[in-house]
Amino acid sequence: MKSTATSQGRSRPRLGLRWKRTSTVDELPADPVGEAVAEALTDVLVGAMVELSYSPDSAGTYLHPGGPGMASATGAGPPGWNTIMIVRLNERVARLVETRDRTSLAELLEALPGAGIQAAAQFRHEGVDVRVPVSPALRRALRDTVASELLTAYLTTRVGRPIRSDLVGETIEYLIELGGTRVESHSLTHGVVVADVLHDTPRLEFAYPADIRAAKRAPLLFDGQRALLVVDPEGRARTELQRQRFERLAPDTASTAAGNDDWAESGSLVAAATGAVGGLGFFVQADGSIWTFVDGQPLLVRRGEHWTAFPLQLTASIANMIGGGSVAALVARAALMISAQPRGAILAIVDDPADLEGAVSRKDRYDLRNDIDPRAMRTETRLHHLIDAEDLDERTLVRLAVLDGATVLDRDGRLLAYGAVVTSRGSQHEGARTAAARTLSETAQVVLRVSVDGDITIFRAGKAVTTLLGRPAGSTV
């Protein structure tokens, strides 16, 4: 196909070109709905390029040939036009989906174009004027609809049969309401898993979320931390699943797998439930963000009215920057765990411990704890001898990383420093943690800054490479 007309847009100015429109003829139709959907898809999968390709109805339907790291879907476009929605990964990330093993990233890539086509069709059928720019309120509705279509596809695949058509969409709407609700001055949390695990006919039917919405105590009873609500594919609330009675619905699951108490506020119980009984899990955190889980792992996160996929490619991105090494997976897992909490951190990887000379104080160097005369040791250095971090795992790394200061590892995953003060060139345009991360990245191979809002920014060579999970400044509404 040769495009004779083209238009492009920027959904996140800091990240550059993210979507474009092309046509098989010398004309581009007005399509504000399609453009808004394209922006929503680039929100979901950071680093992807979205293309909307149009052809007149008279030309018939054109099938895109596809290619590595690419997925597409075809559907009706604006009146008189067909549309192909194409999502492409950049070349480096595309290599992650070219393996024989089906990866989480490959599944997400395949599902995105179809979700976009279906979301756009719903709003075009509702009579949106193609000549009028999409309002902020309509953009928010489109983003939620894209997420609903995407999550519905995931859920249908996992239960293996049709689900109630409006179940996911109504659930999202209800959870958004809960995210802005407080009871007795406390923010609410709520956990629910939609799964095909109970096959008997219920004695009483509670439609979810309609009947649960009317029960004020429901979010308190099913807070997603001590207990969650199990809903069947027909949208009927069936039973609770308590942390200490996890084996009731998952008898083959060890008690230790029922979500970790240390991370209950991050939705660990909901994640564990989807790993044990399948289906799709939702968790509303106290900050109002909505986390979704499949197969025991986070999938999409809604923050600030935008949906973002958990950065499935983060490990590979770090490994690429440092030239390989097991530390990439360790640091990525720790960053994602911290992101799920209202905590901040700086995580850095260096090629050689000697690179830290002058960048980090010797008192903060865990690796040098035995090189200092005990008589000259400061209190902070003495503490290093009490820390068990020789065989570093992600939970120990998280515990150290959320302390004030930077945590630094080498390429082999050895802890070099934690709680480290980084002397940075301050800036009136950025916070202390950002300035420290930027400065440290001039020495380290890669630095991850996790903000208290949950976004993860990657720094390299003194520059911010990209931001994951959050909303970069200057992005559109």
The CA-CA distance between the termini, in Å, is 33 Å
**Main β-sheet, spatial strand arrangement:** 10-9-8-11-12-13-14
Indicate the proportion of strand residues.
15-25%
Largest sheet: 7 strands, mixed
CATH architecture of the largest domain: 3-Layer(aba) Sandwich
Number of helices: 13
Number of spatially distinct domains: 3
The overall average pLDDT, rounded, is: 84
- For this structure, the CATH topology of the largest domain is YojJ-like (1
| CATH class type of the largest domain | Alpha Beta
In angstroms, what is the radius of gyration?
Answer: 24 Å
What structural class do helix, strand and pairing data support?
A: alpha+beta
- The CATH H-level superfamily of the largest domain is DNA integrity scanning protein, DisA, N-terminal domain
Portion of residues within helices: 25-40%
Number of strands: 20
Low-confidence runs: 10-16, 471-476
Give the gist of this structure.
This protein has 477 residues and is α+β, with helices and mostly antiparallel strands. It has 13 helices and 20 strands.
Write up what this structure looks like:
It is globular, with a radius of gyration of 24 Å. It has helices at 32-44, 91-94, 104-125, 136-159, 167-179, 210-213, 218-221, 268-277, 314-322, 327-339, 379-384, 394-401, 432-440, and strands at residues 5-9, 19-23, 49-56, 70-76, 81-88, 182-183, 186-187, 190-194, 227-231, 237-242, 280-284, 290-294, 297-303, 306-309, 345-350, 406-410, 415-420, 446-450, 456-460, 463-468. It contains 13 helices and 20 strands. The chain has a 7-stranded mixed β-sheet with strand order 10-9-8-11-12-13-14, with helices on both faces. It folds into 3 domains: 5-134, no CATH class; 159-309, 3-Layer(aba) Sandwich (YojJ-like (1); 314-468, YojJ-like (1, CATH 3.40.1700.10. Residues 10-16 and 471-476 have low confidence and may be disordered. By secondary structure, the chain is an alpha+beta fold.
